[in-house]
Amino acid sequence: MDAVIRAAAIYIFLLVIFRTTGRRSLAQMTPFDLVLLLIISEATQQGLLGDDFSVTNSFLVVLTLVSLNLLLTALTHRFDAVDRWINDVPLVLIEDGEVLHERLRKARVDPEDVLEAARESQGLERLDQIKYAVLERSGGISIIPRRQDV
């Protein structure tokens, strides 16, 4: 039972930590982010297994984590508030060509990140060429270009 409690506590702790870091940081990992993630996984291993490295304990921990994940998925489908907290909602960062700086700050997104997405997806060179930029639930940025007058 101790392994189940440890696994549940670590799962909830990591969920809160990753939720507070923001969508964008999880969508675009830098080499530093990857190193940090590897260190976190190594640090949580001892907490998950404790002193019991048996196969049975490992199975119990994995079963607990998968069960919690399935439960959380079911809760997000059943309750909109849980879904919004876990997955967030799409967030408009640029509207009708106007950069919404407060939303950028809240989402921890730089204008350069928006411009990078605009270059990659639409071949745009400037922020004023963007009609809408939306931070999606996945952490990616969708770009809708302004109409070109012909």
From TrEMBL:
Keywords: Cell membrane, Membrane, Transmembrane, Transmembrane helix. The chain crosses the membrane at residues 58-75. It is a multi-pass membrane protein. Its main location: membrane. It is found in: Cell membrane. Residues 12-73 form the YetF-like N-terminal transmembrane domain. It holds the Pfam family DUF421. Gene3D superfamilies: bsu07140 like domains. Signal peptide: none annotated. InterPro entries: DUF421 (IPR007353), UPF0702_alpha/beta_dom_sf (IPR023090), YetF_N (IPR048454). Residues 78-147 form the YetF C-terminal domain. GO terms for cellular component: plasma membrane. Belongs to the UPF0702 family. This is DUF421 domain-containing protein.
